[in-house]
Amino acid sequence: MIELSNLSVVFGRGTPLEKQALSGLDLAIETGSFVTVIGSNGAGKSTMLGVLAGDVIPTSGRVSIGGRDVTRITTAERAKYVARVFQDPLTGSCGALTIQENLALAAARGSRRGFGLAIGGNRRDEFRSRVAELKLGLENRMDDRMDLLSGGQRQALSLVMATLAGSEVLLLDEHTAALDPGMAEFVMELTQSLVEKHKLTTLMVTHSMRQALDYGTRTVMLHGGKVILDVVGDNRKNLTIEDLIEMFRKARGGQTLDDDALLVS
Ligand SMILES: Nc1ncnc2c1ncn2[C@@H]1O[C@H](COP(=O)(O)OP(=O)(O)OP(=O)(O)O)[C@@H](O)[C@H]1O
């Protein structure tokens, strides 16, 4: 279980640029569930993922993962529980290192075992076979630098990397938004299969309402740094994008969604 309790985040406190990004956000997520997260620009989605990953320390509130209070533990320590894939394919991997080296770094994440141990020995074969499962032919390019690859190839590898250190939680921050539609679909199918195979508790931020309803088991909508909609089970099964827009409107007391805030496709 992941529990975010009464979380508040204020950036630039006491300055003219002070911004309250989260405002007493509460969210409890069952272990193994796949939650899609939507909301307009500035709703607090990335900040919420940042708090879970340890990149953002909340101003107040509590974060627990599997019963452990992780509110104050560092990103590095938290890395053994939480993996994150970003929108920009360049963010999650190092372009100057080879595929093999990137995988070794990912496998050593959050562990006291060194990079050297991960890069040598029998993990090489394991990495190669994990990359071969992508069916992109990258297993024959293990010594190629990462920056020679396309955005989609890098994002597919980032997902494999996210599963190498045994993290229980996967955070996806618009991880298909920068890809062409074909590659985005490939990466989403890969996401689905890795989440199932590794039984990951997953939060996926997306601007696509279609994606939010097609994947996962629960959809939450954020607005003003809080959860304003939470749909799961039978209520979600037959939900259309139009229903979601109407639910947003009602939750906001009649306020409509900006046309460009969320993609209806
Ligand atoms: N490091 C920061 N310093 C100051 N303000 C920030 C910082 N990070 C986020 N914010 C502000 O906090 C608010 C919430 O931002 P956040 O990125 O969490 O929203 P979001 O829902 O992910 O938006 P988007 O869909 O546009 O990515 C925004 O007003 C943003 O400008």
UniProtKB/TrEMBL annotation:
Q: Which is a Pfam family this sequence falls into?
A: ABC_tran
Q: Which Gene3D superfamilies match?
A: P-loop containing nucleotide triphosphate hydrolases
Q: Which residues cross the membrane?
A: none
State one molecular function term (GO). ATP binding
**InterPro entries registered for this protein in UniProt:** AAA+_ATPase (IPR003593), ABC_transporter-like_ATP-bd (IPR003439), ABC_transporter-like_CS (IPR017871), ABC_transporter_ATP-bind (IPR050166), P-loop_NTPase (IPR027417)
Q: Where in the cell is it found?
A: Cell membrane
Question: Which PROSITE patterns does this UniProt record tie to the protein?
Answer: ABC_TRANSPORTER_1, ABC_TRANSPORTER_2
Query: Which segments constitute the ABC transporter domain?
Result: 2-249
| Entry-linked SMART domains | AAA
What is the membrane topology listed in the Swiss-Prot or TrEMBL record? Answer: Peripheral membrane protein
What SUPFAM superfamilies does UniProt report for this protein, alphabetically? P-loop containing nucleoside triphosphate hydrolases (SSF52540)
UniProtKB keywords? ATP-binding, Cell membrane, Membrane, Nucleotide-binding, Transport
**Which family does the record assign?**
Belongs to the ABC transporter superfamily.
- The molecule here is called ABC transporter ATP-binding protein
Q: Which organism is it from?
A: Kaistia terrae
